[in-house]
User: Which sequence fits this backbone?
């Protein structure tokens, strides 16, 4: 991966993190105020789901940043990368559950059934993304195994020579 690509990805991640912090600091109090006529339990749950959903994106962004650092150093095909990939999978799965919880929370209210169905569909799509990242983790595991095997073969060849 080229330096320019890594720089572009880091700029996008930095902007996403700054924007998400702004949403948490500025927008969440405004959403809280907009929900003033809503039952307190629902109000707290909605804000909690939104804040935790944003947090899942932030956690994923930080892990991708760390993986980019490993790519730049040439150490991404090591066991250390699994920690970040596993955290990303967990964050995406959590986002899927939070999205489904949002649909469940909206279902008994005034929300149109189609909206609830769309949110359930979005939860399913987000779960699918977690599964895709899980498949990519398996590919990373294969690449790490090949890298370890190649190092062992090189070491044996050096001993023979």
Assistant:
């Amino acid at each position: 991966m080229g330096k320019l690509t890594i720089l572009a990805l880091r700029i996008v991640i930095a902007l996403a993190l700054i924007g998400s912090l702004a949403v948490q600091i500025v927008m969440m109090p405004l959403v809280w105020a907009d929900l003033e006529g809503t039952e307190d339990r629902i109000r707290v749950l909605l804000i909690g789901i939104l804040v935790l959903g944003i947090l899942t994106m932030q956690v994923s962004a930080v892990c991708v940043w760390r993986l980019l650092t490993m790519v730049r150093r040439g150490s991404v095909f090591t066991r250390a990368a699994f920690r970040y990939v596993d955290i990303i999978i967990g964050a995406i799965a959590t986002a899927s559950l939070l999205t489904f919880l949002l649909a469940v929370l909206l279902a008994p209210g005034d929300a149109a059934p189609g909206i609830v169905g769309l949110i359930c569909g979005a939860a399913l799509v987000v779960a699918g993304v977690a599964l895709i990242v899980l498949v990519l983790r398996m590919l990373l595991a294969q690449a790490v195994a090949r890298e370890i095997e190649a190092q062992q073969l090189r070491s044996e060849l050096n001993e023979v020579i």
Remarks:
- DSSP finds four helices and no strands in the chain.
- The first helix runs from residue 3 to 34.
- Helices lie at 3-34, 40-73, 80-106, 113-160.
- Residues 107 and 116 are 6 Å apart (CA to CA).
